[in-house]
Amino acid sequence: MANPAHRTDTLLVIGAGVIGLSIALAAQARGLAVTVIDRDPVGQGTSSGNAGAFAFPEIMPLASPGIMARAPRWLLDPTGPLAIPPAYAPRLAPWLYRFWRASMPDRYRASIAAQASLMAVSERALEPFMAATGTAAMLRREGQLQVYETEASYRAARPEWDERARRGIDFTLITTHDGLVAHQPGLATHLRHGAFTPGWFNICDPRDYLLALAGRFREAGGAIERTEIRALRPTETGVTAQTGAGTRGAARAVIAAGAWSHLLARTLGDRIPLETERGYNTTLPADAFDLKCQVSFSCQGFVVSRLASGVRVGGAVELGGLDRPPNWKRADALLAHARRLMPGLKTGGGTRWMGYRPSLPDTLPVIGPSRASARIVHAFGHGHLGLTQSAGTAALVADMLTGRPPEIDLAPFSPTRFG
User: Fold this and answer.
1) Residue % of the chain over a pLDDT of 70
2) How confident is the model over 268-277, as a mean pLDDT?
3) Would you state the pLDDT for residue 6?
């Protein structure tokens, strides 16, 4: 047998989250011999703790005009929907500057267009991908109810809904309490404003989905190894990876290691301004609330999802890096908000969790080759949308790896766009 370092069909995928496993399966289906490497077991990373949503209508970037005017509140409210620990703020300043630039009207509109194109690819790719991987039964088509606590917040969000309408996204605006409870009974009586989006899908449980993808990948001959990749180097014939167990080679590599990806990219000379959105949730027992669909509360920045493992209450954003200890008061605050807005919610017996979402200043992921070598592809930075965009990202990366033209223009997602 040929040395794997010299075979032209070998691929290392670094990261066993939903992006990495989806890419591994798509590349495997194209005939590549794929090995996935992660320092943690499958199902223990951030992808396993998300809200379980395929949120295709979510095309609006976090970096939006006027958002920086609200920045002082982020420093003052440690349990608010978007928080920055004061001690971390100086380190975050370069990222916030890029975030501010991305919020300029022209860049904001460009980000919407790019996000919409990736969402369209991802939505088209999802069901064929799930059929091919034997996971189609895990998909739920329950829609999503977006709730605004005040009329003012609803009116402030109307331009975003107008933008979705211009792009053909189906939704129904709601301005009565009866209209809300027709989709989700049990909401607080003062709630009257929202929108229902039927094209918002959910997975029965993100961890179960990951384990199913990993099982399918192994059944088809793929290998998943648990070790740490410390550095990558391009060679004349491919790429060399320095691991905790020594050096190994392959013809190509994909970096899809979530919030740690930029550290590995840096070993190639690629400086990508990734920050960590620390997300919190509490998973309650299944009988905590009779949930009919996923419910999002925009003013407080959290969602409530029905999963096979229970009712999950989570969300919000804390820009706090990889090293700070969890601030569990954030998870508790979300649970308190949920209890106030869904009075029948039973908040006992839950399990708290914190994960690291990889976030780039313009809310778009990087999907494209490293400056160091076209044999090394970056695929990370999806923020809240990793599950949503996993099948689409996998198809685009598989195209790059096998010489096919991508379905959309990838220039807005280039790893070199930050200079």
Assistant:
1) 98
2) 96
3) 53
Structure tokens at 376: 């090394």
pTM attached to this predicted model: 0.95
The size of the chain, in residues, is: 419
Using DSSP bridges, classify how beta strands 294-297 and 239-243 pair: parallel, antiparallel or unpaired: unpaired
206 φψ region: left (φ > 0), alpha (ψ -120 to 50), beta (else): alpha
- Determine the average pLDDT of the residues in 164-178: 97
The DSSP 8-state label assigned to residue 382 in this structure reads: B
End-to-end Cα separation, the chain, in angstroms: 42
CA 51 to CA 394: how far, in whole Å?
20
Structural contact between residues 241 and 247, judged by C-beta atoms closer than 8 angstroms: yes
What's the CA gap between 54 and 56, in Å, rounded?
6
Name the amino acid, one letter, at 238: G
Q: 101-118: per-residue pLDDT in tens? A: 999 999 999 999 999 999
Joined together, the tokens standing for residue 116 give 């919409």
d(CA 215, CA 208): 10
Going along 207-320, which residue ranges are E strands? 223-226, 229-234, 239-243, 246-250, 252-255, 275-284, 294-297, 302-307, 310-319
Q: Is the pLDDT of residue 176 over 50?
A: yes
Tokens at 234, concatenated: 């391009």
Token digits of residue 29? 């289906």
> So what's the pLDDT on residue 253?
97
Query: In this predicted structure, what is the pLDDT of residue 181?
Result: 98
H or E stretch at 196: strand 193-197
Express each pLDDT in 291-317 by its tens digit.
Answer: 999 999 988 889 999 999 999 999 988
Q: What is the DSSP string of 394-419?
A: HHHHHHHHHTPPPSS--GGG-TTTT-
Statement: residue 2 has pLDDT above 50: no
Round to whole Å and give the CA distance between 194 and 308: 26
